[in-house]
Each structure stands twice: as structure tokens, then as C-alpha cells.
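USER: I would love a firmer grasp of how sequence relates to backbone shape in proteins. This is the protein in question:
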Amino acid sequence: MISMESNVSLKPFNTFGIDCRAKYFFEVKSVAALQELISTGVLKKEKYLILGAGSNLLLTNDFDGLVILNSIKGYAIENQKEEKISLRVNSGERWHDIVMYSTNHHWGGIENLALIPGSVGAAPIQNIGAYGVEAKDVIEKVEFIDLQSGNLNTLTNRECHFNYRDSIFKHELKKNIFISSVTLTLTLKNHRFNTSYGAIINTLQQMNASTENILHIRDAVIKIRSEKLPDHRTLGNAGSFFKNPEISESQFHQLKKTYPEMPSYPAANQLVKLSAGWLIEQCGWKGKTLGQAGVHAHQALVLVNMGGASGEEILLLSKKISDDVQKKFSITLTPEVNIF
């Protein structure tokens, strides 16, 4: 028997700590429970929003519909060969918990993705990434439930159409599906480590740690992220608010003449990836506030709730930052968070 709650505060379910409310609320703990919910026809009558950890979300209004909280837990080894292992993870698991579990077993591939907030189900949608590694590098397949029919379907890595912070789940399948599990392919040996991005090498040196050790690389990433990014439990935030912009080589070379110290990284399709945090900092926003919304003092890419900020206040701050970056660099910043 399906039982939904009414008029529920979403403050505990979003890392910005925005106090919006949901008209209806349902916590799903199994695929069968979600299929039963679909069978009632409520998703055809009400608009709906699926929440995982609420870590990539900005709520600007009460939600006049049904919020579905994903609490489907569990994981298991699906296949193991000489050099690789397939780990099937239910979507309600916390991503960082799976990184810790895998690296503690010395399975390689996601050590650079430690301490990224959010659920496993969000990983393929956003194609989460950090320090030169993306979720697409390890995702073997994604299982999802069609929210109209209740049927289970599976997509291979190629069928997910992964791109930088992008996937099919943001386009053709947006709002129509519920990701139920993600299968990761991790390495048992002959690991391919990526320590060239960001401050990993320097941090490993400071720790007197090896560049060829899964646990050392993971711990270095955790150290870097812990020092740069605020804990949402004490200062509400959603991690990186904007995507790092990608521009043409010609535009980059022009900018480099004026800003020779501008950091850059190679991207696909002969594009150049820039640091959104650096661009924002150059516009003078690092550590600044607008009402109860602010830019983190240690990482300009992170917008924070100083205490009691509304979603509209944070959104206004983000627009002012975007406008300034556009004026100064002729570069458009795109939000990485989902705005409702």
C-alpha cells in the first residue's frame, strides 16, 4: 500500500539547506515500491522531482507536486575476471561510500572521484568528474525504470551519450526515467593512475606518499577537497556551482595575451577548458556576499548559504557572477547544479 506524506519540508534533503516544501513526498526503498507507485497513476496526475542526496540542486520555490526520495541501497559484485571487476551499485547509495569501499579493496578507477557529494544514481546523469577522471571512464551500464510504464531498461556506456558533465539523462530521457542501479568496471591490477591534474602530485609529495598507490591517491584527493570545499552540514552548498567553460583555441590564445597566467586544460574536439573558479576570482567575487548568499572564501566556484538564504537569493548571486564573467572575458558560465 502506497502512503505519501503531504506538505513536507525539503530542508533536510538538499545540501544548500533551502527550506522549501513539497506538496507530496514519497521515499522509495526498492524497485518494486517505485513500480507500485507508478501503477497508481499518480505520476500522470502530478509533476514530480526525484531526489538523491540533494547535492546538485538549488530549490527556488516550493514544489507543487510529488518529490520522490531515492533510498534504494545495496551493492554486489556482478562479474570478476583476472584484471577487472564489475560492481553493481543501487542508485540510492552515497557515491563517496562506494569510492571508499572500492579503494579499500584496492580496486582502481574511481580514487580521483573521492568525496564528491551525491548519490550513485546522480553519477551518470551528471557524468561527475574530478582531477582528470569522469564517471564515464568506469561506468559499464546503467539500469533505469521507465516512469510511465514501470518497465526496467538497461543502457550500455556508449548508449548513455556521455560528454562533459552531460549525458542522455539530461536530454532524451530527462524527467522520464528513474536510475535504479549503475554497474562500474574497476581494475584489479595494471591500474591507470591519473595524478597530473590539479594539486595531486604536490599533495602526494607533502604526504610522502606514492603516486602509484590507490589509497594514497584517494587520500590526497580527500585532503585537497576537504581544504577547498566547505562541509554542507556547517555551510550549505552544492559543490561546484558552475561548469568549467570550454572555448575555442583561437579565443583562448586571444585571452592568453591579456591573461598569461590563465590556467587551462585540453578538452575534446580541439577545445580548451578553463577554470570557472579562476574566472570568478578575477572578477572579484571570491569571499564576497550578497545578502545571506555568498562565494566561498577558499574556492570561488562554490556558492554558499551563509544562513537562511533563499534559493532566489543564491540564484541572483549566480546571475550577477555570470554577468561579470561575460563582461570581462566574453565567456558564458553555465550552472552545473539543477535549478528548480
